[in-house]
Amino acid sequence: MNVPSRVAVVTGAGSGLGRSVAEHLAAAHHRIGVLDLDGEAAEKVAADIRFNGGSAIGIPVDVSEHDEVRAAFDTVRTELGPVEILVTSAGISGFTPFEKISLDEWNRYLAVNLTGTFLCLQAGLPDMAERGWGRIVTISSAAGQAGALRQGHYSASKGGVIAMTKTVALEYAARGITVNTVPPFTADTPMLQEAQRAKQVPGPEMMARFIPAGRVGTGDEIAAVCAFLCSEAASYLTGQVIAVNGGAVL
Ligand SMILES: NC(=O)c1ccc[n+]([C@@H]2O[C@H](COP(=O)([O-])OP(=O)(O)OC[C@H]3O[C@@H](n4cnc5c(N)ncnc54)[C@H](O)[C@@H]3O)[C@@H](O)[C@H]2O)c1
């Protein structure tokens, strides 16, 4: 089958899951806008993709800032073309007992994880609607499905992402645009490794006991499913919560 090269924006692509997703989509011959708060990391990922024969640009952006998001998508359009694929992986995570979550902390989690996803979807959807073809995958979290201890702010933001994803899926289903969410339980990325170093979550062996598959997942395993959701083959799959989690939350 002749698979067209499309323009994909991946947020949080300077690290972890976003980076793996960008690499999978580049391997599928798509041109990648690598967006991240850490501009150097974004450029490094883009440079690695180019080194391997792909097409990518790195763009620094804070997804919680409306003007920065608009400017980043404009740059992608100018340099690579209209956006047809969007994966939102930019996010922050942390642990605070519920009664100790300050309003500033609460607002920051909502701003990055939920408003950031909202702003990116709004920035990406017009190109897709105009072309009658689009794929969106939001990265949410098992915390948004089932709750998580000391993550009242994080789980609320991710629960919001799941609900928003379903709503956008309904609004755009008849326009050739699919919108799904992938809520990881654990993936071995810098975010998880940092939480383990800080002893905020158990180490890999202990964590594996809570996962029916018996181990923590890799970014690659999650990215492969995201790439499928962005493919031509996934055209009738929308509004779904595709939990790539080794059976941890059913
Ligand atoms: N790793 C896990 O176990 C796990 C579990 C559940 C959900 N998730 C979700 O997966 C996504 C990716 O996480 P990861 O594990 O790859 O973490 P990571 O920390 O390795 O990567 C997250 C990336 O997002 C970027 N980022 C943070 N704030 C940003 C902002 N305001 N604007 C733009 N970019 C920003 C960071 O610079 C970083 O490069 C996150 O949304 C996270 O909540 C991860």
UniProtKB/TrEMBL annotation:
<dbReference type="GO" id="GO:0004316">
    <property type="term" value="F:3-oxoacyl-[acyl-carrier-protein] reductase (NADPH) activity"/>
</dbReference>
<comment type="similarity">
    <text>Belongs to the short-chain dehydrogenases/reductases (SDR) family.</text>
</comment>
<dbReference type="InterPro" id="IPR036291">
    <property type="entry name" value="NAD(P)-bd_dom_sf"/>
</dbReference>
<dbReference type="InterPro" id="IPR002347">
    <property type="entry name" value="SDR_fam"/>
</dbReference>
<dbReference type="Pfam" id="PF13561">
    <property type="entry name" value="adh_short_C2"/>
</dbReference>
<keyword id="KW-0560">Oxidoreductase</keyword>
<keyword id="KW-0134">Cell wall</keyword>
<dbReference type="InterPro" id="IPR057326">
    <property type="entry name" value="KR_dom"/>
</dbReference>
<feature type="domain" description="Ketoreductase">
    <location>
        <begin position="6"/>
        <end position="188"/>
    </location>
</feature>
<dbReference type="GO" id="GO:0032787">
    <property type="term" value="P:monocarboxylic acid metabolic process"/>
</dbReference>
<keyword id="KW-0964">Secreted</keyword>
<protein>
    <recommendedName>
        <fullName>3-oxoacyl-[acyl-carrier-protein] reductase MabA</fullName>
    </recommendedName>
</protein>
<dbReference type="InterPro" id="IPR050259">
    <property type="entry name" value="SDR"/>
</dbReference>
<dbReference type="InterPro" id="IPR020904">
    <property type="entry name" value="Sc_DH/Rdtase_CS"/>
</dbReference>
